[in-house]
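Quick start: what a row looks like.
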Amino acid sequence: MAFGINRSELNQWKARVEQGEIAFLTHYWLDPRFPDAKTVTKAGCSNLNALIEWGIGYGLKPEWIDHRHSGYPHFDLLGDKQLQVLLAEGLEDHIERFQMK
């Protein structure tokens, strides 16, 4: 279950994904499969080749791309990898906003 974002933020992420940008959306998240994870960052892009190449740069495997939401393929970033990517992408504001440190 996702929370901590509003409809406008979600729609902005979707628009950027649809335009072929690598777009990031961080939100609070509860999932019993990942009891230690309190947040997730979705790194999405409708251009699958661009998303795959971007992911490879961070050690992410193409088979980890979530295709469940038609038109919004994305990686779900958790834990240390989430922090690594957010810092590398200059998204410290996500870390501060969702109190990840």
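That is the whole record. The first helix runs from residue 7 to 18. The helical segments are 7-18, 48-57, 79-88, 92-97.
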